[in-house]
Amino acid sequence: MSGTIMTDQMQHVALTTYCEGAPKLSDFAVETKDAPTPNEGQFRVRHVFNSVDPGTRSRLSGGDSYAAALPLGKPIDGFSVGVVDMSENPEYPVGTKVFCAGGWRTHTIQTGKGFIDKVPEIPGIPLSLWIGVLGVPGLTAWFGLKTVAKFKAGDRVLVTSAAGPVGATAGQLAKASGAEQVIGIAGSDTKCKWLVEEAGFDHAINYKTTPDLDAAIREAMPKGVDVLFDNVGNAMINRVMPMMRLNGRICVSGQVADYNLTPEETPGIVNTKPFITHRINMQGLVVFDFAREFPIALNEMATLIGKGELKLKEERFEGIDKMPEAFCGLFRGENFGRRVVKVGDE
Amino acid sequence: MSGTIMTDQMQHVALTTYCEGAPKLSDFAVETKDAPTPNEGQFRVRHVFNSVDPGTRSRLSGGDSYAAALPLGKPIDGFSVGVVDMSENPEYPVGTKVFCAGGWRTHTIQTGKGFIDKVPEIPGIPLSLWIGVLGVPGLTAWFGLKTVAKFKAGDRVLVTSAAGPVGATAGQLAKASGAEQVIGIAGSDTKCKWLVEEAGFDHAINYKTTPDLDAAIREAMPKGVDVLFDNVGNAMINRVMPMMRLNGRICVSGQVADYNLTPEETPGIVNTKPFITHRINMQGLVVFDFAREFPIALNEMATLIGKGELKLKEERFEGIDKMPEAFCGLFRGENFGRRVVKVGDE
């Protein structure tokens, strides 16, 4: 029963300690073990790229009333694109390229159910885009802007964390869909320059070097904000609320500034009068609710990519052992574009 | 030109001092002057009942970025029902009963434009209801529940300030429309008793005597809240947010606890994680946005009143000089139902 069959090895990154405040490298450990093999109906995906996602943070605190805790010792959740290397499922033969809810690991066993699909054959689309602008971040931007924030041509759009993969996509989609004005807030001059010169934002504001951010937003958007596409959290929403226009909409896309805070540390949204006076609508989203409509969004975004109207900055890390570093940096604002980690050959 | 024609006298209540904190009697003065007479196309309404409305408070602080200040010395805004007593407008002959944006006065000149309409001839509906359950409070409840909060049969509904005219109407409309459960929060045992025994709420909680309000809400609504119909403000929304169910909706109908507070004093909404985890939608309303659909709502509510399924508690004050007293009491939670002030004969 033991030791007679040589098995593949795989690696994964496990949570070793529940995070307090910002996640740190010592909260994680890379572990090596025998790679699993598929049973009937299953297949094995050899991951090529894994994502690190700020939203993952909410499951790393030991659980609260909003998010179940990830069990200690288990691999971290995330998205992956890879190649089927063993299969007992005729729908997914060996060699099939897929994107899926894979996680921080080099191999997963999949059944074809849940969040998994074959990578469509579109020439000129790099594989990593399927966990980027054509993956969860891009889909979050698309459904957050169009379905949740009910974007319409002529809207004035303010995007926060704008150089991140969700924000950059949301701003470009707004621009491509007839926004009157798209302004981004980001954390470095390099990011701001890229937003304006490459991504086509009308203007970008470096929140780290702007002494009076309120005044800078008001100056850039003197007529106010129709859509706030927010990836930051309560303090940012509180700041922008008084600048919202009549019938303005706030998409709560992410809360990266709040994920590391205890309830006592978390800022509150005080400026709520505009909910009535300006009929503000505020809503959050989890993109998987819109799974049935993913093909519509992916088709539109792939077309925009082909026309050069949707660009994504990518930061690539090499090796699964770099995943904790790539993740922890998200909370220091170090990321510029989508962070993907290459964990296997294409 | 002067002094040869005897004119009627009228009275109004003017703001004499901008309010700081809770409004007080000395902020107001009753003034007597010659009643105006209509020019061509105009008509004069002799008010019978005037309303006092908590939302008026936002214009009595000298103005901020959300609400223009009411000029000192001018009559206060409000709603009125009355009878045309002079007319140069054939659409509104003398004797026509109307409800309108009249204000804290005994007579107004109207043109037939803006918020004014003839009182429909429905037997058995007292005149004062047209500034109550069939006026702005009732319409706010109807559109807040059905259009803003997208109420659907089977929802579990929590109503705050539930014995007020908006809350009591919202709860009864929810019950009449197939709510699974309707719970009210109010400020006295008498109000709670009325909510359950007369208005048909499933349960009511006295927030003033309940030591642990969170626990009491959770016990009354163990499955959570689909619709929070809130008339109170940020602290209440923050409290209920962790109890919201998936795809829950919050109608920001009023903010009576926050109107008297400075920005520094105002509590914030900290518990915003459910916006994402539970896909919460939060929206405020100003009922006049729905003016085109008022007839649909009024017809439905008049039918419910006829069937005894929509009851409204009314507190009546006599004489225009009682308007400041009626208004100031709103902010001490003294009101139980709709406060109307009788300022003229029917």
Please give a structural write-up:
The structure is a homodimer of 346-residue chains. With 346 residues, chain A is an alpha/beta fold. Chain A has 2 domains: 9-132 and 313-342, Medium-chain alcohol dehydrogenases, catalytic domain (Quinone Oxidoreductase, Chain A, domain 1, Alpha-Beta Complex); 136-287, NAD(P)-binding Rossmann-like Domain (Rossmann fold). Chain A is 21% helix and 25% strand. Chain A is built from 8 helices and 15 strands. Chain A has helices at 136-148, 165-176, 189-197, 213-220, 234-240, 273-277, 294-306, 323-328, and strands at residues 9-15, 28-34, 43-51, 80-87, 97-100, 107-110, 116-118, 156-160, 181-186, 203-206, 225-230, 244-252, 281-284, 314-318, 338-342. In chain A, the strands form 3 sheets. In chain A, strands 3, 4, 5, 6, 7, 14 and 15 form a 7-stranded mixed beta sheet that branches. A 6-stranded parallel beta sheet of chain A has the order 10-9-8-11-12-13, sandwiched between helices. In chain A, strands 1-2 form a two-stranded antiparallel ribbon. In chain A, helix 8 (323-328) links the parallel strand 14 (314-318) and strand 15. Chain A binds chain B through residues 55, 58, 64-67, 233-234, 237-238, 242, 252, 254-255, 258, 263, 266-286, 289, and chain B through 55, 58, 64-67, 233-234, 237-238, 242, 252, 254-255, 258, 263, 266-286, 289. Strand 13 of chain A pairs antiparallel with strand 13 of chain B, so a sheet runs across the interface.
